Structures are given as structure tokens and as C-alpha cells.
Amino acid sequence: MPKSVLWMVVGIISAATCAVVALSIGTAGATPLSIGTFVTTALTFIALVFYARDNNRLARITQDKWENETILDTTYEMTIDPMISDN
């Protein structure tokens, strides 16, 4: 995910959160606890977006490293030799 797309997603989530909070402050049924819960959920979602980006970047680096070291082309074989008893 390019950085511009990442920041656009974060901006959209932030703008939507601000809009929902601004609209819900004026309503009679919204409590500070429900608004705070919504904001916390939105911030958690933003943190997960950054975590997913970093995780994908690390996986890509590891895959490139394996391809450069030809680890993916290496195969291993295991055989079990029967034991010969002296009886």
C-alpha cells in the first residue's frame, strides 16, 4: 500500500469520526461514554491500518530475502532406515 493511499485512508477515517462526533454531540441520546467508545474504536481501526501496512512490508522483505537466498528452492529429504536386529 503506497504511503499516499495509507494517509488518505487515515484522513477519511479521521474526517468521518470527527463528523460523527460533531453530529452526535448535538443529539439528546448521545452520552459521553458512547462518543468516547466510538472515538476509541476509530483510533483502534487507524492503528490496525498501520499495523497491517507494517506487517505486509515485513512479509515482503522476508519473501525477497528468501528469493535472493534461494531458500524457497531448497528441498529436504528424510528417510528412515530400518534397524537390523542381531537376533
Task: Explain what this protein looks like in three dimensions.
There is one protein chain. The chain has one domain. The chain is built from two helices and no strands. α1 (3-25) packs antiparallel against α2. The mean pLDDT is 81. The longest helix is centred in the middle third of the chain and has 37 residues, at 32-68. It is mainly alpha-helical.
What labels describe this entry?
single chain; mainly alpha; 87 residues; elongated; 0% strand
Secondary structure category:
mainly alpha
How far is it from the N-terminal to the C-terminal residue, by CA? 67 Å
Secondary structure tally, helices: 2
Order of helices and strands: HH
Number of domains: 1
Radius of gyration from the alpha-carbon trace, in angstroms: 26 Å
Oligomer category: single chain
Strand content: under 5%
* Number of strand segments: 0
